[in-house]
Amino acid sequence: MSMAMIKGYRIARGCCAAMLAAGLLVSCREGKNMNAKTVGAGAAPKQVMQASLAGQWYSGQREALARELQHDLDQADGAKLPDVIALIQPHAGYRYSGPAAAYGARQVQGKTFRRVLVIGASHRRSLPNTVCVPTATHYATPLGELPLDRNFIAALQQFPFVRSLPAAFEGENSVEMQIPMLQQALGTFTLVPVVVGQLDPATVRDVARALGALVDAGTLVVASTDFTHYGAQYGYVPFTTNIAENLRKLDLGAVELIEKKDVDGFNAYCERTGATICGQVPVSILLALLPPAAQAHLLKYDTSGARTGDFNMSVSYVSLAFTGAWPPAQARPAPAKPETTLGTEDQKQLLRLARQTLEFHFLKNRKATPVDLGIAITPAMQQTMGAFVTLKERGDLRGCIGEIFPKRPLFEAVMDHALNSALHDPRFSPVTAAELPQLEFEISALTPPRPVASYHEIVLGRHGMVLAKRGRSAVFLPQVAPEQGWDLPTTLTHLAQKAGLRADDWKEGAEYLVFEAIVFHEKK
Fold first, then answer.
1. 3-state DSSP assignment of residue 274
2. Using CA atoms, how far apart are residues 370 and 375, in angstroms rounded to an integer?
3. d(Cα 131, Cα 285) in Å, to the nearest integer?
4. Between 478 and which of 156, 267, 448, 464 could a Cys-Cys bridge form, CB atoms 3.0 to 4.6 Å apart?
């Protein structure tokens, strides 16, 4: 992925750190409480995203739409499955795919899910290795408004492949066609609509890992796709006789691999057959996300050709459910530890890199490369890690900016944040060349953040922490609480206040991530 596709997330730390969301640097001054700017329902006025296909792909009248959907739900038969955690659902107009989609919706009808994550593919935009989330706080269809889960969305926005792109949802049936059917079946829930672009296999697995840290027992995941698009209009005519029979064979060949949760086999099948499965990427993400014990259940197979009697142009529809259980956050596999530790010599070289990057800036007025500085990059320095660079002058903070979520080699993060801390920390005037001899550089190399079930799992002095609630969030590095002499309740009180929340909002309803840091600094 090119760097132009990556949004940086810089975080400034004084007596605390406040998170940077959607490209806005937020910070707080030493000794003062300031509300953090964040993206989310708790920080922004109500903003409603209107369904754009109502009245075109389905009825725009509430009563008529509810009647149509309920009729399809009532016609869907078969025994109900226990513990449905995910669905694969079609997304054509309800006239065509509604009866098939109703089989999946019926499986969750009357159940309670706190959140529904809908993953759809982009049909109209080129979005290489990009995942799109909305900026709105609510989503409205003729059946009513749904709140968006801004905490979940804000957590996703920490990853470099995620963009806030409302235009990706305009006219995008892959997401929109799922929502009224789910409203009719479930009633009220919080919604996470996601549009994914054209992802390579590595990014598919990165997205699945990101989602895997956030879904829980209260989450229903819906992967949106139609299956084979057959006919000259779609540029796909692999056979001209026994079309219905051959389509079924082709589609169920893909279903067989989906049932095995074989993401590589599924993608290879699509490549080998040319099967025009428009939601191949959402299905691949779901397969990579599902827990090993999840079981697949084919609920319904249908085609538009069978409904219209015209197989010269036909789209196939599959409704498929997965049963099982999402693992609780504390039971998820811990992020892989770096293969190489940061030895004393690596730490010295990184500190040299930080200082000399700033020196080179003042000397040459451009950003240095390691070659410019004559510093060899060791394997340990190439690890993908988050990092902060802190500058102190005679013991006082002079600048600190960093990134928590690992997205690039450690040495690159150190070089960038040496400049950012010196020149772009909004709490201070830019560092001058004359100050360089008085500056002391400190680097914090971070392990990947991981969720914990509650604040009781936070270990002061060991864990850095991110608190998120109602779309607001804030972060402390591990060294903050010991430096201030705070116990855990005091730390969390300050953290909640820095996020713009009430002092006791950390006690209930907040979500937490923790990380650790290797901290090293120049000896003066």
1. coil
2. 5
3. 11
4. 464
Determine the Cα–Cα distance for residues 44 and 137; give it in Å rounded to an integer: 8
Judging by beta carbons within 10 Å of its beta carbon (0-12, 13-18, 19+), is residue 303 exposed, middle or buried?
Answer: buried
For residue 96, which of 184, 220, 227, 222 has the smallest C-alpha distance? 227
Question: Tokens 């070089």 appear where?
Answer: 415
How high is the pLDDT of residue 316? 97
Give pLDDT, residue 106. 97
pLDDT, tens only, 292-327: 999 999 999 999 999 999 999 999 999 999 999 998
Give every CB contact of residue 15 below 8 A, 6+ residues apart in sequence.
28, 30, 31, 480, 483, 484, 494
- How far is residue 146's CA from residue 183's CA, in Å, rounded to a whole number? 9
Helix (H, G, I), strand (E, B) or coil at 214: coil
pLDDT at res. 165: 84
Give, to the nearest 10 degrees, the angle between helix 62-75 and helix 178-186. Answer: 80
Q: Output the six-digit token pair for 378.
A: 């060791």
* pLDDT confidence tier of residue 524, bands split at 50, 70 and 90: low
- The model scores a pTM over 0.70: no
Q: Cα–Cα distance between 157 and 438 in angstroms, integer?
A: 37
Question: Mean pLDDT across the stretch 4-28?
Answer: 29
Residue 41 and residue 147 in contact, taking contact as beta carbons nearer than 8 Å: yes
The number of helix segments (H) and strand segments (E) in the chain equals 15, 22
Classify residue 97 by its DSSP letter.
H
- Which CATH architecture describes the domain 3-38+333-521? 2-Layer Sandwich (3.30)
Each residue of 415-432: pLDDT tens digit? 999 999 999 999 899 999
What residues have CB less than 8 Å from 369, skipping those under 6 apart? Answer: none
Write out the CATH class of domain 48-327: alpha beta
H/E run at residue 295: strand 295-303
- Name the DSSP class of 12: E
pLDDT for residue 40: 30
Q: What is the 8-class DSSP label of residue 272? A: H
> Quick one: 238 exposed, middle or buried, by C-beta within 10 A (0-12, 13-18, 19+)?
middle
- Which residues lie across from 472 on neighbouring strands? 469
The answer to whether 163 and 140 are in contact (CB under 8 A) is: no
Helix (H, G, I), strand (E, B) or coil at 305: helix
- Provide the residue ranges of all domains of the chain, joining segments of one domain with +: 3-38+333-521, 48-327
* H-run or E-run covering 100: helix 94-108
Q: How far is residue 367's CA from residue 414's CA, in Å, rounded to a whole number? A: 13
Tokens of 394: 């005679």
The reply to whether domains 3-38+333-521 and 48-327 share a CATH topology is no
Query: Residue 498 carries which DSSP code?
Result: H
How far apart are alpha carbons 524 and 519 in whole angstroms? 16
